Amino acid sequence: MTFPGSFPTTRLRRLRRWGWSQALVQENTLTPGDLILPVFVCEGAQRQAIPSMPGVFRHPVELLPEVAAQAEELGVPAIAIFPATDPGKKSEDAAEAFNPENLVCRATRAVKQQLGDRLGVICDVALDPYTSHGQDGLVRDGYVVNDESVSALCRQAIVQAQAGCDVIAPSDMMDGRIGAVRRALDEAGQGRVALLAYAAKYASAFYGPFRDAVGSASNLAGMSKSTYQMNPANSDEALREVALDLAEGADAVMVKPGMPYLDIVRRVKETFAAPTFAYQVSGEYAMLAAAAGNGWLDRDKVVLESLLAFKRAGADGVLTYFAIEAAQLLRK
Ligand code: PBG
C-alpha cells in the first residue's frame, strides 16, 4: 500500500519539479529597481562603523557620492539620506534642521552634482536627528506638540528641497503634516518634489540600531515615541493614516517597520492601490546580519527571501540596508 484512499488528480508538485516550470509559474520577482538604499552621513574624513549594524557605515559627505554611484550602477533607483548630527549642533528647537549647510543638504548637493537625474535622492523630514531630546517634533511641557512641529517640518522640507532632493519623506507622524508640507513646497516653488509619506509608522523597538546610527538613542534616554507613532496592535488605524496622507497629497506611502508588518503592506496595497513602500528597518537588518554572522542563517538566501516577501505582500519597493548587496546578488 502506497497511498490510502484515492490518488490526487491535482498535483501541485508537477510544476515545481523543474527549474523551467518553476520560472514559468513564478508570481513575483525582485529586481534592483525595487530597492532604495538608506545611507548615513557624518562629519569628518573617516567612514565610521555602526556596532549594532555590522557592515553598515556612516559616510563623510565627500565619500557619499562613491556609494551613491555604486547603487546607481547596480540599478538601485534611489537613496535615502540620514544624518549623524554632531551632538553640539543638537538643540531643543532643532535649528540645525533648517541650516542649508547641514549634513543632509551638503550630502544631497554632493550626490546630485555627481549623478544628476540618474539617481533619486530622498530626504527624511523629522526633527529627531537634530533635537537634544531625540523626539521627532518640538517638546512643550514634556509633550511633543503637533502644529508647531509641523511648521518646523515645513521649514526643514523647504531647505532640503532647495538642496536638490527629489522626494521628501516625512517620518514624523504629526497630524496634517503631509498637506502642510505639500503647500509649503509648492509655495516655495518646489512643486517638482514628490512626497513619500511614512504613513503607517509604528512605535517600534526595531528602530534601536538606527537611533545608534544617528546618535539619537542617548538623547531620547529611554523616552518612547508612542504619543505620535502607531500602536503595533493596530491595523485599521493604518488605513486611516494612509487615507489621510493620500488625501493630503502624498504621492506614495510607506509602511514601517517591514517584515513584522507585511499584513499592513497587503491591506494598504489592496485598499488604496497607491504606490506602496515598506522599510526593512535597522533592527531587521541587525537580526539577519547577526544570525548570518554567527553562521545560523545563510546570508545571501535570507536577504533575497526577506526582500522578495515584501514584493509578495504587495510592496512596490523596499528601503533596505541590504540594497547594494541584494542588487549584487540579483545581478549574478
Ligand atoms: C526618524 C526615523 C527613524 C527611522 C527612520 N526615520 C527612527 C525613529 O522613528 O525613531 C528608523 C529607520 C530604521 O530603524 O532603520 N523619524
UniProtKB/TrEMBL annotation:
Its EC number is 4.2.1.24. It comes from Pirellulimonas nuda. The gene is hemB. GO terms for cellular component: cytosol. This is Delta-aminolevulinic acid dehydratase. It catalyses: 2 5-aminolevulinate = porphobilinogen + 2 H2O + H(+). Keywords: Heme biosynthesis, Lyase, Magnesium, Metal-binding, Porphyrin biosynthesis. GO terms for biological process: protoporphyrinogen IX biosynthetic process. It holds the Pfam family ALAD. It comes from the Bacteria. Homooctamer. SUPFAM superfamilies: Aldolase. Belongs to the ALAD family. One of its GO terms (molecular function) is zinc ion binding.
